[in-house]
């Protein structure tokens, strides 16, 4: 189901690029995925002009400038988890071993959010919908299809999210050594994994769906992006690779196996 009108609690529901050059970032992803970009003027302390990426009028991502004090930081993608009560969830963060880094605060009438860090160091945002649920389209080419929590201590991180937002976990049917994560309705909405190389900090990553991963990889290079890990096949799952945009924002490609 590519279109969404609501998300269950503990579901990754929005992705947002924070970048030192939002105009160039928007141009890169628009050329790569065919996104239409809508711009909205915001105060400088809120990152300046805010952009939303859309496919056929449906929101698929946000693009923001950097906040003051972030000068020199490379671009990065952030992930939002839907919650029914952001104040209630945020109140559980410190007791569960995490940190509330910002909020909760209102984003006009769009929603209410908080920025938190789990006990292993991974950062994520909590989103209580107002007029916006986040991504209105997903699971099709050019949009979000999967998220992973990358952490050196999976049990510790999962215990934290279970207490704060009710996130669950279960063994993957396709990959026995892989732990999937579930929302409060028991639906699989992502996964967890250990860092695959030394020096990778804990984080939530994202996979963007494409019809042809190899062709998209070639286009990334043409547009000035970088290959971090070339495309590879996971039997029964799909073809994927890790890439970065020209400002350093890292993302994964995912091509579903042929039916």
Automatic annotation (TrEMBL):
This is VOC family protein. It comes from the Bacteria. Pfam families: Glyoxalase, Glyoxalase_6. InterPro entries: Anthracycline_SecMetBiosynth (IPR052164), Glyas_Bleomycin-R_OHBP_Dase (IPR029068), Glyas_Fos-R_dOase_dom (IPR004360), Glyoxalase_6 (IPR041581), VOC_core (IPR037523). Residues 11-129, 143-256 form the VOC domain. CDD domains: SgaA_N_like. It comes from Nocardioides marmorisolisilvae.
């Amino acid at each position: 189901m590519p279109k969404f009108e609501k998300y269950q609690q503990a579901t990754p529901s929005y992705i947002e690029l924070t970048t030192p050059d939002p105009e160039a970032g928007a141009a890169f992803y628009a050329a790569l995925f065919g996104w239409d970009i809508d711009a909205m003027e915001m105060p400088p302390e809120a990152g300046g002009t805010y952009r939303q990426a859309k496919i056929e009028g449906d929101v698929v991502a946000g693009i923001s400038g950097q906040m003051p004090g972030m000068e020199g930081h490379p671009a990065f993608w952030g992930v939002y988890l839907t919650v029914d009560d952001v104040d209630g969830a945020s109140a559980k963060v410190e007791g569960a071993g995490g940190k509330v880094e910002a909020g909760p605060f209102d984003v006009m009438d769009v929603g209410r959010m908080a920025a938190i860090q789990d006990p292993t160091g991974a950062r994520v945002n909590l989103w209580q919908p107002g007029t916006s649920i986040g991504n209105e389209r997903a699971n099709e080419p050019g949009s979000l299809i999967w998220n992973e929590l990358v952490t050196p201590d999976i049990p510790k991180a999962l215990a934290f999210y279970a207490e704060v937002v009710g996130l669950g976990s279960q063994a993957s049917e396709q990959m026995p050594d892989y732990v999937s994560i579930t929302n409060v309705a028991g639906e699989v909405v992502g996964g967890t994994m250990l860092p695959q190389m030394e020096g990778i900090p804990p984080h939530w990553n994202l996979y963007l769906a494409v019809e042809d991963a190899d062709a998209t990889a070639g286009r990334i290079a043409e547009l000035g992006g970088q290959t971090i890990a070339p495309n590879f096949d996971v039997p029964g799952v799909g073809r994927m690779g890790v890439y970065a945009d020209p400002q350093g924002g890292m993302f994964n490609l995912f091509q579903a196996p042929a039916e």
